[in-house]
Design a protein that fits this description.
single chain, 8 strands, disordered N terminus, 8-stranded mixed sheet, disordered C terminus
């Protein structure tokens, strides 16, 4: 790929803790989980925060049964890539609204977890491949980006300090959005794609419920990782659109 505008820059990995914030079980498994497998193998601490249980995601299974099922599948998938901390905010699937309550709930977890990096899902109206994005993804992605800054300001959600003892956290350096239509950075997952595939494959009942829309996790993730690998100059890669929270300096040059 000779067009430099399409070349992905390597994502810096000189950090220790990441918090992944998405709307549903399986959102992270569409690519980002392969990068998570790489990071946990490096000894980094990665935790998951999901806004919903994904209870509206299986047409043939009522929400009261689908929610616990999808929680179990998400926890199983997370373990495949070295993550044992998975939290749920229990917002209603398909009806998540961007607003102060969502920002506050994400801010609370950021202050508690103290991540250096946040990973989320694209909040654009279109995803990679010009796929129309879903409403929950847009709400949670936008709220995660805003909460990365909210977490560092004691005068935003001051009750988190006064009532819960959660002091501001100013350490979020950047936020990475997967499935973005115009990604800026990539992560070499050549040795970790199999783990990412296993993580997505753990969502067995969900994929069965897709019926005619079902896909092969191996084909889907391998195809995307191969295309992004060409843009990063490696065999297999996943891509992110990166938003800086702490501005670029000589000590933080994520474009380098």
């Amino acid at each position: 790929m000779g067009n430099s505008a399409r070349t992905l820059q390597p994502l810096r990995e000189d950090w220790q803790r990441a918090l992944c914030v998405v709307a549903h079980p399986d959102d992270l498994e569409y690519g980002a989980a392969s990068a998570v497998a790489r990071w946990t193998a490096q000894g980094k601490e990665v935790s998951y925060l999901l806004a919903t249980q994904g209870e509206a995601g299986i047409d043939g299974v009522p929400p009261e049964k689908a929610g616990p099922l999808r929680i179990a599948e998400e926890r199983a998938g997370a373990l495949k890539v070295g993550v044992d901390s998975v939290e749920f905010l229990d917002y209603p699937d398909g009806m998540v609204e961007y607003g102060l309550p969502l920002r506050r709930d994400i801010t609370r977890v950021i202050r508690r977890r103290k991540p250096d990096v946040i990973v989320s899902y694209a909040f654009t109206e279109r995803l990679a491949g010009r796929i129309t994005n879903q409403a929950d993804h847009r709400a949670v992605g936008s709220a995660a980006l805003d909460a990365a800054r909210d977490a560092g300001n004691r005068w935003i959600f001051p009750e988190l300090v006064t009532d819960e003892g959660l002091q501001p956290w100013t350490g979020v350096r950047f936020v990475c959005f997967g499935s973005a239509p115009q990604p800026s950075h990539g992560v070499d997952v050549t040795e970790f794609l199999d783990a990412g595939i296993a993580s997505l494959s753990a969502h067995h009942e969900y994929m069965l419920g897709l019926g005619a829309s079902a896909f092969d996790p191996v084909d889907l993730l391998t195809s995307a990782a191969t295309a992004y690998g060409e843009r990063l100059g490696v065999h297999r890669a996943v891509a992110f659109d990166v938003f800086e929270i702490i501005p670029n300096t000589a000590t933080l040059d994520i474009e380098h």
